[in-house]
Amino acid sequence: MATTTRTRAPHATGRRGSRSRAWLLAAGLLASAGLLVLAAGLSVAVGSKTVPLGEVWSAWLHPDDSYASAVVASRLARTQLGLLAGAALAVAGAVIQGLTRNPLGDPGILGVNAGASASVVLVTAGLGATAGRSVWAAIPGALVAAAVVYLIGSGGPRGRATPVRLVLAGAAISAVLAALVQAVALAQPDVFNSYRFWVVGSLAGRPEGTVGRVLPFVAVGLVFALLLPRSLNALALGDESATALGLRTGRTRALGAASATLLAASAVAAVGPVGFVGLAVPHVVRSFAGSDHRWLLPYCALLGPVLLLGSDVLGRVVARPGEIMVGVVTAFVGAPFLIAAVRQGRAGL
After folding, report:
1. 82-202+210-269+276-343 in CATH: which number?
2. Per the CB 3.0–4.6 Å rule, which of 5, 254, 269, 325 could disulfide with 202?
3. 3-class state of residue 214 by DSSP
4. CA 286, 230, 254 angle in degrees (round to 5)?
5. Residue 346: pLDDT band by 50, 70, 90 thresholds?
6. What's the confidence (pLDDT) of residue 35?
7. How far apart are CA 21 and CA 27, in angstroms?
C-alpha cells in the first residue's frame, strides 16, 4: 500500500513561528511590567532610613504628620521621577540609536546633556543656585543644543541629516558647551558647588512639582516615538533602501530627533544627566527581543525605569545611613549588562 507524507507549506510554518515569537515577546512585556511594579514597590518600601513595612503601608493609605508619612512622601516623589526619567531616557536612547544607526548612540550624542548642563550653569551664574535647580533652567539649553546639532547635521535648513553628520555635529557642539561649562564653573566657586551635585544625577532633592512640569514634554515625546517604529525599521536598511520603500528619511529623522530631544531634555532637566540608561537598556533589550522597534520601544519604556529605580534603591541600601547618587550606581549596574549583551553578539543594530 502506497503511503503519502504530508509536508507543511514553508509560509505556514513561518507564520506559525512568527506567531509564537509574538506571543513570547508579549509575555515578556507582561514580565517586564511585573518587574516594573516590583521596582516601584521596593523604591517606596526600602530606603536609607529603616521604616517598618506596616508603617509604610499605613502612611501610604492614610498620610498624616508622622515621620513615616514624610519618608513615604519623599520616596513616592523619587519613584515618580524614576518612572518618568527612566522611560524617557531608555526610549530616547533607542530612537537615537535607530536614527543614527550607531550602537553607541545615547541622549548625549545630540548635545542634549551638554546643552542642559550649559543652561544650568549660566542660569545659576546669572540668577543664583535656586533658579539653577529649576527644571526650566535645563530644558531650554537642551532643546536649543539639539536643534543646532540637527541644523548642522542637515547641512542647512533644506539639507538632509545623515548619521555621520549628526554624530560629528553632536560631538563638536558638546565639546564647545563643555568648555563653556568648565570656564564658568571654575571662575565662580558658588556655581561649581551647585553644579557638581546636579551633574552627577539624582532622584533626591528635586524641587516640588518637578514631575508635573516635565510630564507634558515626556508625553509628547512618547507620542512622537509611537509613530516611529516602522520608519526606524526601514531606516535600519539604509537610506537608499528606505527611500525605495517609500520612506521620507528627512521627515523621519526630524520627527525622531524631536522625540528623542523632548524625552532626553525632560529627563535631564528632572534628574540630571544620568548616564548609561539610554545606552545600556536598548542593547540589553535587543539581546533577547531583537531589533524590531515595534517591540524594542515598549520594552525600553518598561525596563528603563526598572534600571533607574533599582539603581536608586541599591544606592540607598549599600551606603546606609547615607546614599550614593543614582548616576553613580547606574554606571556600575548598567555596565555589566551592556558588556554581557555585546559579548553575546546579538546587541548590534
Report:
1. 1.10.3470.10
2. 325
3. helix
4. 100
5. very low
6. 95
7. 10
Q: Beta strands of the chain (E only): which ranges?
A: none
Q: How confident is the model at residue 347 (pLDDT cuts 50, 70, 90)?
A: very low
Q: What percent of the chain has pLDDT over 70?
A: 88
- Give 181's contacts (C-beta < 8 A, 6+ positions apart): 114, 117, 118, 121, 195
| 44: amino acid identity, one letter | V
Q: How far is CA 268 from the centre of its chain?
A: 9
Which sequence spans correspond to the domains of the chain?
82-202+210-269+276-343
> What cell numbers appear for 85 in the block?
526619567
Angle (CA) 175-206-266 rounded to 5° is 50
Cα separation of 261 and 147, whole Å? 9
Cα 268 from Cα 264, distance rounded (Å)? 6
In the predicted model, what is the mean pLDDT of residues 146-161? 74
pTM of the model: 0.86
C-alpha to C-alpha distance for 267 and 26, rounded to whole angstroms: 27
The whole-chain average pLDDT of the chain stands at 83
